[in-house]
Amino acid sequence: MAVIGLLASQKSYFQGLGYLLAYNVMFILPLIAILALASNRVVTTKLHQ
Prior knowledge:
Blueprint: H1 2-8, H2 13-39, H3 41-48
Helix pairs in contact: 1-2
Keywords: Membrane, Transmembrane, Transmembrane helix
């Protein structure tokens, strides 16, 4: 919510946008990668062997 508050302020818009981008790179992209690997049948089959 703090990032949304920064985005609402015209002065700190780019700072908030930078924080939002950093958050997405550090937390959301690895989560998507892990979920994609976990749902891939080839990868899960190799892990079970």
